Each structure stands twice: as structure tokens, then as C-alpha cells.
Sequence to fold (271 residues):
Amino acid sequence: MVSQKIRAVVTGAAGKMGGRMVALVREAPDFSLVGATERAGHPALGRDAGEVAGAGAAGVKVTDNLAPLLPGADVAIDFTAPEASVAHVRAAAAAGKAIVVGTTGLGKEHLAEIRTQANRVPCIVSPNMSVGVNVLYRLLAEAARLLGDDYDVELFEAHHHFKKDAPSGTALKMAQVLAEALGRDLERVAIYGRKGMVGERPKQEIGIHTIRAGDIVGEHTVVFGGMGERIEMTHRAHSRDNFGRGALRAARFAVRAAPGLYDMGDVLGLK
Fold:
């Protein structure tokens, strides 16, 4: 049963994305912040989550245990790390609560466990919660189908130097979307950068290239290169707030959804 306001718990509340999530939940008129967590031993534990986020006192203390907070919540919003996210999904499933996961770097084993837990509760997982990026997935698939094998496909992604995984989860999702649209096996055709005498570029190849520099929030460009022309499709994130607003949209969807594993394509009606 969902309350008049959607009661949200934010995990990783002292992180860059978690802090913005705390602020955005507090700003949203249809949400209420009822809990915030951080990893054990974090210096933010015991402090007010709003103050940690630089958003003013929220009256919610940061704790290191999600489970006790879930009975008083409708949804958990998680931007943490793969192992932590899996643990948070398990806790949400045990409590019968919806969860939104925007963590990047999830491996096959993480996703398999999340898929199992999603049989019990609504669970939305997306490596990029941006509405624009998820619309771009759809546009990339359509462009790839129309252009076909006559156009080479190269993908470039750039992020801040603090980012731990490479390529980004968004870049990998884009590459998968492109491979499926072109009828290719990504594991066979993906090339992660080039060096040396690599020879002439095979037509089936999908190049994926990573840049890490400064404070770049996130940029992704796909190049379709033909003979005599090229098409470039780019998404640039100007702040983390676009990911947070997408997560709020996902949370609104999740609290009314049946148990199951969803992504932003479901949230935005793109499927």
C-alpha cells in the first residue's frame, strides 16, 4: 500500500550520486525521505542525511543498515556498488518493498541474483537512469537497423577520473543495443580500443573507447561511419541531477508495478 507521498530510503547517501538523490527526494512534492544509509564505518553515520548532502536538515539520520528502515518505506533508491546493490535488493525483497538500482558495473552474477529476487518485488535496474539516454537507446537501434552493415560503428564514452568501471555501463548497454539491432554477437565483435598494426577494420567490428578526465559527468557518442558521410549521435550529461530525476520517475513506476525485473524502457513506455 503506497502512502500519499512516496516514502523513499536512499542508500549510499553520502556519495556523489546518493547525496544528490537525497536532495532531489526532498525537493520532489510527491516524495518523502524516510531513511538514508551508508556503508559500515563511514564518517557520515549518525549525521543528518540532508546536511551531509548539503541540502539542509532533513530530520533523517544516516545509518548502516537498510533492513530496519524498509517497513516504513515504499521504495529504496540505490546508487552504490555491485555487491552492496545485490545486498540491498535482497533486503528489499525480504521486506516486500520496491527498489530502484542505478549502480553501474553490475556483472552477470549480480544480475542473476537480482533477477531471482525480483520475482518477489518490483525491481528496476538501469546502468543509466537518464531519460535522454534511454530514449537514445531506442534511436540507436533504429539507426543501426536502417544503416546496416555498410556503416562502421564506433562508440566513445567519457567520465570523471573517479569512475571505477570501464567502459561505463551505459556504453556497454549502447553496444549491446547496437549489436542486437545489427544481428551481431557483441562478445565476438566488440573491440575495446586499438593499438599497433591491427590491420584493416572488419565490417562487423563495434569499437568501444573510454576516456577518464577531470570532472566530466558523462558523455557518450556513437559514430556511424559510411563512405562519404558519417552520422554522430551524442548524449552529454550536464549534472548528476538528470540521473536522479530519472530515478524518481522509476520509483513512481516501481511502487505501482507488479513484482518483476524492469528497466527504464519499461518506465518510459519504450517497449
In short: Residues 48 and 237 are 29 Å apart (CA to CA). The radius of gyration is 20 Å.
